[in-house]
Each structure stands twice: as C-alpha cells, then as structure tokens.
Amino acid sequence: MKHLISFLFVTLLLILGCEQVTEVNDPVKTPQERVLNKQLITLPTSNGLTVESQTYYMDINGYYGGEFQKWYSYQTNSGTVSQFADLDFLPGAFSETKTISMTFNTGGAAMELGPSMVFQAEVEYTYKIYGLDLTGVNPNTLDFVYIDANGNMYTVEYDYVTMDVSTGMLKVVNAILPHFSRYGFVN
Structure pTM? Predict the structure, then answer.
C-alpha cells in the first residue's frame, strides 16, 4: 500500500510539474516591437547663445496622479522651434512622491523623461514640436517610438501621430508610456 501511494504521489508530481514547466517555457509577450530602418527626425541647430538642453522638474504624488506640462523654445536661423510636452499620470501610476524630469534638447525630435521607473497605472504623453523643416518626411511612415540606451527603437501605443508641413509641426497624442526613458519622432 505504501508503494502504491508513493507511486501515485510521484506520478501526480510529475504531471503537475510538467504542466508548470510548459507554462514557464511559453514565449514572453512584450508590448513593444523593435522598429527597424527609421531615423530620429532632426531639429534645426540653434543660433546665438541658446542652451542645447533644458530640464524641468515637478514633484508628482503617484498615488493621486497629476499633470506636468512644459514649453521650451529656441531660435534658429529660420525662426523659432517650440516644443510642448504634457504628461498625465493616472492615480496609482507609482507609489510615493517622485521628482519627475522632462529634458528638452536640440539634438533631435525627442524628449528624455525621468527618473527611471516602470508604471503601475497608465501615463499618457502628448508631445508637439513646431517650426521644423519637414521636407522629405513621409507622413505615411512617421512614427513615435521609445529609444533605448543603445539607440534601438521600439513601438509605442498612442491615439495618433500627425504632421503639418505648413507649420513644421509634429504631434503625438496620448502615447502610453510603460516607463520613463527617451521617446521621439522617427521617419
């Protein structure tokens, strides 16, 4: 009888163990796909004594959520380039109060957001740039992506991305940010 119970117990362990191993070996589903053969859209160089980057900070309590909006402009030989960013944190996006940073720069149509963290609830991001020369930018291949530290680009979910050649405007509306990093427009 002891042998029969032992045999049944070992058999049960093997069956349950095999089912768990199968689940562990299932492919990991990632929400972001790698983007290939696209380049970050460049911004015109500044003229005069314009600072190449500007960082703004705001304390946000992740439990309650909040909104962080900023404008940044600089002069070029052909006019003014203006950037607008709007971060909307839904309640529960992260725990505690954190100092959030937005860094605008003239190195490309991208924004760096910090500190490095993964969100527990949605963070929506709207980003607009005006005053660009969009000659050669194809509206059909325009995209908004996450750019990792190695320069690899990954898709981001958003409501829509658009451009207007007459005002030199690029815009992404309600991009869903799973974490902070660098995000920008590519073509």
Answer: 0.80
Alpha helices in the chain (DSSP H): 2-24
Q: Residue 104: which of 55, 41, 38 has the closest Cα?
A: 55
Query: What integer pLDDT is reported at residue 6 of this predicted model?
Result: 52
Instruction: Give the dihedral sign, CA 139/180/58/48.
Output: negative
Nearest to 121 by CA among 54, 179, 184: 179
Q: Which of 153, 62, 76 is nearest to 115 (CA)?
A: 62
Domains, the chain: 34-186 (2.60.220)
**Higher per-residue pLDDT: 23 or 39:** 39
CA separation, residue 176 to residues 4, 31, 73, 121, 155 (Å):
56, 11, 25, 10, 10
